[in-house]
Design a protein that fits this description.
The complex is a heterodimer of chains A (about 425) and B (about 200). Chain A is an alpha+beta fold and about 425 residues long. Chain A is about 15% helix and about 25% strand. Chain A is built from eight helices and 25 strands. The interface between A and B is large, with 82 and 67 residues.
Chain lengths: ~425, ~200
């Protein structure tokens, strides 16, 4: 222990470098484990100081944080300041790279009265209903099962709804209700196999453990295909706002199905028509018909740089980059246009391209200083193609204005670059 | 070939001649194999634990508890426990949505909105209301408030009694206006909004 830095030795305050030095010496000492146990003894005032506790890094050193010069990269909202419920906090897509959204910047859209503070020791997942063996699992037991880690996006069904007014000049505020994480957990198929699903079962109903017990029905076939009971996000326990300690991840589906704070899976033979999957999240078509249980999101892409509200410093080379994704599986290709859709060229996709995951695309572009309209178009593995807003309107026999209030809009997003380099939203 | 967990019926074959034992083991273990191994984790919940947790209500009324209520009775509960957020007349307040129309049909507003079953209303009030104290209403109060909300939306009469038998029979105004008529999902099926223009 002699080489271990001591807080009572009159040494100068530790700096990052000094801590690193002390730690190296500590680890090469007589035995890290023995040192740890000894270090747990605390000095008592007025006595010979006992060996100091191992250095406990605090704050920034204990859990790293971004540079103060990056402090503007935060979630933002268009919601009412007083209503947390049903208010979305959006991911700053324009400031992020690659395909993973940092957990602290994952979008939020809560339908609950406050975020539950769940003790994982007390948390249980019950699987019951049309099964041979209803079972209750502790968090510890869930982590003993064979696990999977998969990268999937979550996208709110209200994402990308076009905006008017000042907020329309922000890719974050229009498209920031999508985020992509590596989720780790147990496949629902493993848990259902443990319980023995009965022949007549056809749906599962998932329920959250918050005070108002959010509920969603998910087809059993989807549950058995790739749905995950996740306990980790980007390598660490899921954040409280994202469902700590357990969340259902339904790959490719609208994120309303990703039940947070999951504590019950009820195996049944029909959808339960819960509030948030029927009346509260059904869109009306122009003819008054309701569109519900839409599950998979359409093929979508958006250029995140350059995007609304940004300004190009001047003519010259400027890489165009953005994200593409599809509830239908893998992104097959992304095409980029710099002339408002008259011509398209294929963009480069960042590898590996993953199913139901954000896909980063990049396109080399040299701006000649003239007005340009930049837009991207996603084609997924099923050959489905992202429509323009005009094409989407034609499909639904709607006006363009319809999409300014509807959900599930996956139209192409054009950005106009003016001669002064300013970038604005080119949707009507 | 490995039998992941020796099923009781396999164990019964142990004393039989080898060939027969193998045949029985194969015959009985194949379905188990097809389902994959089990890991022996988890605990069997008691019937009481399941009953306590299983509060969800299905469109056919499965899960509805005994109890009853009318809109007239519900109006009293509404004033006490709902009006602060949803407004004295059910039309909402500055911060909270009303109960007329129900739900959130958008962009086209509809009478009674796009709530397919009256059980959906009962279930949501039961699990989530009042917002600040969910789960605090008695079954009678939930039946009564549900009746009042449906009455405010001109779906039932003020004197109609709602209970486990009558609630699932309430016909919501737009019950037949959903696409698809029955929710369904198949791997690889085209999405409803689909019909995307094919790539030229």
């Amino acid at each position: 222990m002699g080489s271990h830095p001591r807080s009572d030795s009159g040494s100068p305050p530790r700096t990052l470098a000094r801590w690193g030095e002390g730690r190296r010496r500590f680890l090469t000492g007589a035995g890290a484990l023995a040192g740890f146990v000894m270090g747990a003894i605390r000095p008592v005032r007025g006595q010979t100081p006992a060996p100091a506790a191992p250095y406990e890094p605090q704050g920034f050193l204990a859990y790293g944080q971004p540079s103060k010069f990056a402090s503007h990269i935060v979630r933002r909202t268009t919601g009412r300041p007083t209503a947390i419920t049903d208010t979305a906090l959006m991911t700053p897509l324009q400031d992020l790279d690659g395909i993973i959204t940092p957990s602290g910047l994952h979008f939020l859209m809560d339908h609950t009265n406050g975020i539950p503070d769940i003790d994982p020791q007390k948390h249980r997942l019950m699987v019951h209903g049309m099964v041979d063996r209803p079972l209750t699992f502790t968090m510890e037991e869930l982590k003993r099962f064979p696990s999977v880690s998969r990268i999937h996006f979550l996208e709110c069904n209200a994402n990308s709804r076009p905006l008017r007014g000042p907020n329309r000049e922000s890719v974050q505020l229009i498209h920031g209700r999508t985020s992509c994480s590596e989720w780790t957990g147990v496949l629902v198929s493993v848990l259902l196999n443990e319980c023995g699903v009965q022949q007549k079962a056809s749906w599962i109903v998932a329920e959250g453990g918050e005070s108002n017990k959010y509920t969603m029905s998910i087809p059993l076939a989807k549950g058995l295909e790739d749905v995950i009971v996740a306990y980790a996000q980007n390598g660490e326990p899921i954040r409280p706002h994202q469902g700590y300690p357990l969340r259902l991840i339904v790959p490719g589906s609208e994120a309303i199905r990703a039940v947070k704070w999951l504590n019950r899976i009820h195996v049944v033979d029909k959808p339960y028509m819960a509030w948030h999957e029927s009346g509260n999240n059904a869109d009306t078509r122009p003819d008054g018909k309701g569109m519900w249980f839409r599950f998979e999101l359409g093929p979508k892409s958006v250029i995140t740089r350059p995007s609304g509200g940004q300004r190009l410093p001047g003519p010259g080379f400027c890489e165009i980059t953005g994200l593409a994704w599809s509830g239908g599986g893998m992104v097959r290709r992304v095409d980029v246009s710099t002339d408002g859709g008259r011509t398209y060229q294929e963009a480069e996709l960042q590898q590996p391209v993953l199913r139901h995951a954000h896909t980063r695309f990049r396109f080399p572009w040299r701006w000649n200083g003239e007005e340009a309209v930049l837009q991207s178009r996603c084609t997924d593995e099923r050959g489905e193609v992202q429509p323009t807003i005009e094409e989407a309107a034609k499909i639904l026999n709607a006006t363009i204005d319809y999409f300014y209030q509807a959900d599930h809009f996956n139209g192409i997003q054009p950005w106009r670059v003016a001669r002064d380099g300013s970038v604005t939203n080119a949707l009507p | 070939m490995r039998c992941p967990e020796l099923a009781p019926q396999c164990a019964g074959a142990v004393g039989a001649p080898l060939l027969l034992a193998t045949a029985i083991a194969l015959a009985t273990c194949v379905p188990a194999l097809a389902q994959g191994p089990t890991y022996g984790l988890g605990r069997t919940p008691s019937a009481e634990e399941i009953r306590a947790a299983d509060t969800a209500v299905a469109p056919d009324g499965t899960g509805l508890p005994p109890g009853r209520g009318t809109a007239k009775e519900g109006a009293v509960v509404y004033v006490q426990k709902c009006a602060a957020c949803h407004g004295p007349n059910g039309t909402g307040t500055a911060l909270h949505r009303g109960v007329i129309p129900l739900g959130n049909a958008k962009p086209v507003k509809l009478q009674g909105s796009l709530v397919p079953y009256a059980t959906t209303v009962w279930d949501f009030i039961n699990r989530a209301m009042p917002w600040t104290k969910p789960g605090s209403l008695t079954a009678d109060e939930v039946y009564a408030v549900t009746a009042y909300v449906l009455y405010l939306n001109d779906i039932i009469k003020e004197s109609d009694v709602l209970d486990a038998a009558s609630l699932p029979k309430v016909r919501m105004p737009h019950r037949d206006d959903f696409i698809p008529a029955q929710p369904a999902w198949k791997p690889g099926a085209r999405r409803q909004f689909g019909n995307y223009p094919e790539r030229p």
